[in-house]
Write a structure and sequence with these properties.
The chain is mostly beta strands. Helix content is 9%, strand content 49%. The protein has five helices and 45 strands.
């Protein structure tokens, strides 16, 4: 016996002993074992004979080869695997390549358990299902929902796929699955890698848990379409090798709530259009990405263009040379993220619409034309960020809408450094009102620490107070505050320190309804 075989033997659980210890009640409940144990990360037992399944009342862990599966990559194993699922529910697939030409349907309290986690780095290692079906694996079908299913230690690949090649079909569909789990699953080469829910299903995918999920070479790697209470823990979304540019790493659309991802690396070596895209929503709320990595996007690292509510991205590395974009929706929080690799681009964060958006405690490390640009969003809070890159403007507010009210923005307690133009810039129009710029530290800019220009509404209600503004740059205007237009009226400029600027006095060309006083200049 080799060292690897001995190790595998030591790690496995003797199922006869397991069944004996469980007794009748334990055997009756073992169908739900997959979900519980996969969540705890401790399902490591093997199955080597259908006799063991018979001892468990036909409910647990038969070996697919006892039902005629070959696993040689040539023989069509579809019927054998499906017979095993229908008979035993939880089916072990020893290491090998299982060719399938039809969809595999996983029943309630059932699952597919392979041997060893596989991915693009180990194409001949572990258990592979290579499918030419439109859907390789489907959890549930018709009008009934299924529950307590598990997929474990599997690689699922589109037949004929080569890195960088065309894609088709869907890898895994959770059609009508409740309280099911997946662990150490790799999906490759499909139009959609993993789909949560289906428009035709009468049920949402509900209570789904994924651990160490890896999806690569797919045009849409993960698509949450009709799902609730879904959690992803760890894994990589996107090819870490040679591939073509792909569409979306993680897509949320349709009817979804409580979708959470933790410690996902969303990066495709040859680029995604979007790392995360929330779009075409009917009812989408409570979507969170925490401790993730969003890289290599070319259109947007994150985009929401639909009426989603309560969306949060936290403590995430945003290394894509593409911005965060919100054009619709409400109640967003982007906090404690690091934005990098935006040098020379128009912006790092672009808020073209939506409302009640908080951008707080983030680090902006590169040099786009604008670190944060707010156009037609409403109720934006930009709080306690470090905007440290050079190039153009730290925070730019420039609405373009001529219908509806925008504004209600709070720009407060930010550290804004090294702006090649202005620290904060407002290009007002008649729809922009109620702007508060307070307690910011703005240093080493070229032209203006704070610039307010354009023509605002009859009553702008702009407040600029308590800011410390300093620069040693002499190549530009070097002025702390510039109210540049008579079209700005009804405003307050108080308590600012602009004394450490080459042009220390506040330039005030605004209207007559104002308080400009008690500034240190």
């Amino acid at each position: 016996m080799t060292q690897e075989e001995q190790l595998g033997k030591e790690r496995s659980i003797n199922r006869r002993q397991l069944l004996k210890g469980l007794g009748i009640a334990g055997i009756a409940g073992i169908a739900g074992f997959g979900l519980m144990e996969a969540k705890q990360g401790s399902w490591d037992f093997e199955a080597d004979s259908s006799a063991h399944a018979e001892a468990a009342g036909g409910s647990c862990c038969c070996n697919v080869k006892d039902f005629g599966a070959v696993g040689d990559g040539v023989t069509d194993d579809t019927a054998a695997i499906q017979r095993a699922l229908d008979t035993c529910r939880v089916v072990n697939l020893p290491a090998g390549v299982y060719k399938t030409t039809g969809t595999l349907y996983v029943p309630s309290n059932g699952g597919l358990v392979g041997q060893a986690s596989s991915n693009w780095d180990f194409p001949s290692f572990g258990t592979w299902i290579v499918s030419s079906a439109a859907i390789a694996i489907q959890i549930g079908k018709d009008t009934d929902f299924v529950t307590s299913t598990v997929l474990d230690k599997l690689a699922v690949k589109r037949s004929g796929f080569v890195n960088g090649g065309s894609v088709s079909g869907t890898g895994i569909v959770y059609y009508s699955a409740y309280y099911s789990s997946s662990r150490d699953v790799y999906v490759e080469g499909f139009e959609t890698g993993i789909q949560l829910g289906a428009a035709a299903s009468p049920h949402k995918g509900l209570g789904l848990t994924f651990k160490n999920t890896n999806v690569a070479g797919c045009n849409v790697c993960i698509h949450a379409l009709k799902a609730a209470d879904v959690s992803f823990y760890g894994g990589r979304i996107g090819m870490n090798g040679v591939d073509a540019a792909r569409g979306t790493g993680f897509k949320v659309s349709g009817n979804c709530d409580s979708i959470a991802a933790y410690r996902l690396i969303i990066a495709n070596n040859y680029g995604f259009d979007h790392c995360v895209h929330i779009t075409n929503g009917q009812a989408i709320f409570w979507v969170t990405f925490t401790d993730c990595d969003m890289e290599t996007a070319t259109t947007a690292a994150f985009a929401c263009d639909t009426l989603a509510t309560f969306v949060r991205v936290e403590n995430t590395w945003v290394g894509s040379p593409a911005p965060f974009v919100v054009s619709a929706g409400s109640r967003f929080i982007f906090t404690r993220n690091t934005f990098a690799n935006h040098d020379g681009l128009p912006r790092a964060v672009h808020l073209t619409g939506g409302s009640y958006i908080e951008v707080s405690n983030n680090d902006f490390m590169s040099s786009p034309s604008n670190q944060i640009e707010i156009t037609n969003a409403a109720g934006v809070k930009v709080l306690a960020n470090n905007l440290l890159g050079g190039a153009g403007i730290g925070v730019r507010i420039a609405p373009t809408t001529t219908t509806g009210e925008v504004g209600g923005h709070q720009i407060s307690s930010n550290e804004i450094a090294n702006a090649g133009d202005n620290g904060i810039s407002i290009a007002a129009n008649a729809k922009l009102s109620k702007i508060s710029i307070t307690d910011n530290h703005i240093v080493n800019f070229v032209n203006f620490g704070i610039l307010v220009a354009g023509t605002g509404p009859a009553k702008c209600n702009y407040t600029i107070t308590g800011n410390v503004i300093a620069t040693s740059q002499t190549s530009g205007a070097g002025r702390g505050v510039n109210i540049a237009s008579g079209g700005i009226d009804y405003y307050v400029v108080t308590g600012n320190d602009t004394s450490s600027c080459p042009a220390p006095t506040i330039h005030d060309a605004g209207g007559s309804h104002k308080v400009v006083a008690n500034n240190l200049s």
